[in-house]
Design goal:
Blueprint (H helix, E strand, L loop, with lengths): L4 H30 L65
Length: 99
């Protein structure tokens, strides 16, 4: 069955949105599993794109990811998955929130 342009675009958007959620959850899971047990009350909440309203991407309070820990041979992309378009996603982090 041939979909109209609007229906095809909507279906593509829904499919890409699902992949965005799956990717964000996978990244958050991987990051959470890779970090040692720490006191979450001292972690920094990431509640917006690029960490702050200025969208600088800086986390001036980072304590876990150090230059010694993040090296080319031990840190990087684990996998990729082809999709039908762009995906814009960032895992958001809120300490002491159980889902």
């Amino acid at each position: 069955m041939q979909l109209s342009g609007h229906s095809a675009a909507r279906e593509s958007f829904v499919r890409n949105a699902k992949w965005s959620v799956i990717l964000a959850v996978a990244i958050a899971t991987i990051i959470g599993a890779a970090q040692p047990e720490t006191d979450t009350t001292s972690s920094v909440n990431v509640t917006t794109y690029h960490n702050d309203n200025s969208r600088t991407g800086q986390n001036l309070h980072e304590t876990v990811l150090t230059q010694a820990l993040v090296q080319q041979n031990t840190f990087g992309k684990l996998f990729s998955q082809p999709v039908d378009g762009q995906i814009y996603a960032q895992p958001l982090v809120l300490g002491n929130l159980k889902i």
